[in-house]
């Protein structure tokens, strides 16, 4: 329902503006401030609605009288006269540009109505310009008005065919919007393209002229439903996107917390692998708002860099320690070569020295075991006894943590060997009786035997470690 016009209130507002205009001349203000105040009063006047019909002409003439008084006062000052004329010139030029656009407007009725509003502005709102400019601008403005009126008259003559054509244009444009709605939008970029296309077509529809009155209700109902459908899908996508953003931000924050925790753990090698996996996981998180993503990425990268710097420093220290350990181990290996059991030298002391040198390379460990076994054999022990003795000394020098680690490693080997044994034994069933002398059968039996011995060896080693 339209809002009821308060004519009395509008009359009072206009009377107040006239009082302000009358007082403006006598105010102790700079000329430019007075001029701006005058323009504010003018703009405010035309925003106020209708007044009682009996007062309309009286209030308008009173307002125009005081505008003339202000201009007379203003024009006493040449500088501000020039400013006002320049302002009015630009205003009229701008109004002409607006009017020119109306010539090409497809909606001839709307264009004519809008030109009438511009004409009212031209006559009542815009002040004077130089005489030569005024004549030229007025002629141009009138010529544009003539064209717009001719367009309206032409439209009125062919109203039925033009409105029917407009209706078909609008329907075709609505179908284009329907196609945009039906097209999937799975990314922000795709939706931006959809929105731009939609806005472009929507603007085209608004520029098309009127349609037949009988089609109006049906058309606007269809139009509103299609527009509502587009905005609904757009809002749904961005609502879900916001939810996805929040989920991905939470994933990034969780990874940052994990990396921060790993930075305080001293198991560098294990943590290095975990951080590399977390870096790969980070790359999969998408989409994330640009600014938040940059902030989180900088934080994540800084923590990772800090870890890898510590890791490299530790590796460097470890490398120097390994070089030092290897030198010590080489000295012990040479010492073993000169070992003489006839001089009552204690081999246990040499083995203890070896264990205290720290981590041993596989090559040195093999060499050490080989030389110690040789000494044991010289003392009268056989191969198996020498191996057992060596293991006994090795395990005896371990602490509880080292023993647990060794047992864990042996359990893994034992599990693998047991699975292999089952496989080998199952394979025997594939051999026929007459193939008993077959080389493949012999090889399988040898593998089974070898496997069983390895299993026994590991079980024995575990029993030694559990003592």
Main beta-sheet strand count, sense and barrel state: none
The CA-CA distance between the termini, in Å, is 97 Å
| Total domain modules | 3
Look at the structure and give the mean pLDDT. Answer: 83
**Number of continuous helical runs:** 16
Indicate the percent of residues in helices. Answer: over 70%
Compressed to H and E, one letter per element, the order equals: HHHHHHHHHHHHHHHH
Radius of gyration: 49 Å
- Please tally the β strands and state the result: 0
Portion in beta strands: under 5%
Q: Topology, pairings included?
A:
Elements: H1 7-24, H2 31-47, H3 53-74, H4 78-103, H5 108-125, H6 131-157, H7 159-182, H8 188-207, H9 213-262, H10 268-283, H11 290-337, H12 347-355, H13 362-378, H14 383-396, H15 400-428, H16 439-465
Helix pairs in contact: 1-2, 1-3, 4-5, 4-6, 5-6, 7-8, 7-9, 9-10, 9-11, 10-11, 11-13, 13-14, 15-16
């Amino acid at each position: 329902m339209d809002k009821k016009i308060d004519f009395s209130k509008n009359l009072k507002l206009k009377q107040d503006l006239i009082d302000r205009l009358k007082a403006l001349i006598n105010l102790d203000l700079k000329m430019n401030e007075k001029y701006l105040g005058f323009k504010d009063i003018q703009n405010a006047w035309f925003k106020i609605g209708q007044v009682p019909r009996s007062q309309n002409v009286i209030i308008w003439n009173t307002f125009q009288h005081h505008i003339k008084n202000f201009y007379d006062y203003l024009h006493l000052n040449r500088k501000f006269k020039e400013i006002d004329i320049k302002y009015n010139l630009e205003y009229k030029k701008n109004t002409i540009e607006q009017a020119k656009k109306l010539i090409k407007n497809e909606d001839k009725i709307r264009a004519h109505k809008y030109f009438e509003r511009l004409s009212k502005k031209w006559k009542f709102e815009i002040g004077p310009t130089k005489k030569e400019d005024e004549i030229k601008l007025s002629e141009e403005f009138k010529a544009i008005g003539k064209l717009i009126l001719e367009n309206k008259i032409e439209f009125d003559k062919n109203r039925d065919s033009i409105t029917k054509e407009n209706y078909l244009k609008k329907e075709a444009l609505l179908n284009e919007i329907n196609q945009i709605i039906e097209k999937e939008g799975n990314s922000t970029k795709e939706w931006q393209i959809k929105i731009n296309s939609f806005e472009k077509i929507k603007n085209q529809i608004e520029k098309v002229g009127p349609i037949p009155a009988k089609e109006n209700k049906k058309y606007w109902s269809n139009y509103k439903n299609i527009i509502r459908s587009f905005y609904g899908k757009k809002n749904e996508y961005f609502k879900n996107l916001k939810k996805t953003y929040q989920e991905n931000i939470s994933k990034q924050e969780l990874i940052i917390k994990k990396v921060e925790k790993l930075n305080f753990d001293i198991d560098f090698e294990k943590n290095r692998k975990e951080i590399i996996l977390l870096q790969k996981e980070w790359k999969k998180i998408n989409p994330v708002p640009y600014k938040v993503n940059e902030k989180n990425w900088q934080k994540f990268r800084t923590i990772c860099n800090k870890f890898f710097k510590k890791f490299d420093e530790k590796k460097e220290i470890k490398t120097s320690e390994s070089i030092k350990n290897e030198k010590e181990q080489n000295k012990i290996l040479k010492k073993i070569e000169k070992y003489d059991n006839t001089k009552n030298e204690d081999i246990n002391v040499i083995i203890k020295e070896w264990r205290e040198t720290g981590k041993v390379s596989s090559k040195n460990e093999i060499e050490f075991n080989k030389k110690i076994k040789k000494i044991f054999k010289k003392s009268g022990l056989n191969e198996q006894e020498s191996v057992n003795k060596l293991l006994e000394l090795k395990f005896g020098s371990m602490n509880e943590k080292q023993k647990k680690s060794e047992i864990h490693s042996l359990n893994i080997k034992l599990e693998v060997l047991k699975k292999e044994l089952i496989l080998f034994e199952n394979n025997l069933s594939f051999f026929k009786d007459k193939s008993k002398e077959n080389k493949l059968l012999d090889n399988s039996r040898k593998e089974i035997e070898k496997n069983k011995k390895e299993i026994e060896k590991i079980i024995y080693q575990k029993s030694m470690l559990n003592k």
